[in-house]
């Protein structure tokens, strides 16, 4: 099920996170050691639940953004290690909470923590990780970095609640949707990229450049994720294709198909999304309608637009391998649909 959208031929098709992985390898080893240390607890279930998700194969893109955005300005201390670990813990906590809210069964191709240990354990271990994240932020001693990350935590929570309020509501606009993903996803990308320059004591302009880069990269990343739910493969997604449809999530491919469709098409969407009629037959019809009204290709076009804004945000910065690696991450995020 689903249609894989090919992108234009060119560099996007060959894009990789490998340059960023290679540049941050030594620091990421330190981050991984700190992750294991800070996920430990005398309460046996805490490390079991935490390590289930932490070791599940995510690329850890967000902490790599923190490491890269500090190192590109010549930072040589260790505060960026603790901040990168804090970012990863915030992300992991969000995933644990998300899976409970969304009643998800699969995460990165494995059973979710809530399916193994239950909803209560998932929520509480997520809270433990958030607590550890904030302890590390305090240890760094930068009020600015603490302000950026704590603000991001608040915005993410607001995004979660906003998504609940628009779930299964076909009157949701594209602006509503963008508000949700800006809060739920892009805010942490932006914070991850901004705290690196903060501990590097760079200029306000350089800090803002990385913040803008992270925000727009996050928007592009989530747009592609939402397109993949209707046009990808389960193996690539780490979840079942069509999960957003089954959960009644209003994402851009659905919004575009709804607004461009006929009265009959809109009646279908109301029945399927608002009425919870999300069986396989209706999922197939949803795929067909999204394809008919260019819901996937136009969602990818939006992602490319935000990718260009992220690219332009870095344009004034001096050339370096770090900058090149961050630019290639943009292409990689979008090329996941190729």
Automatic annotation (TrEMBL):
<dbReference type="InterPro" id="IPR000092">
    <property type="entry name" value="Polyprenyl_synt"/>
</dbReference>
<comment type="similarity">
    <text>Belongs to the FPP/GGPP synthase family.</text>
</comment>
<dbReference type="InterPro" id="IPR033749">
    <property type="entry name" value="Polyprenyl_synt_CS"/>
</dbReference>
<keyword id="KW-0479">Metal-binding</keyword>
<protein>
    <submittedName>
        <fullName>Polyprenyl synthetase family protein</fullName>
    </submittedName>
</protein>
<dbReference type="Pfam" id="PF00348">
    <property type="entry name" value="polyprenyl_synt"/>
</dbReference>
<keyword id="KW-0808">Transferase</keyword>
<dbReference type="InterPro" id="IPR008949">
    <property type="entry name" value="Isoprenoid_synthase_dom_sf"/>
</dbReference>
<keyword id="KW-0460">Magnesium</keyword>
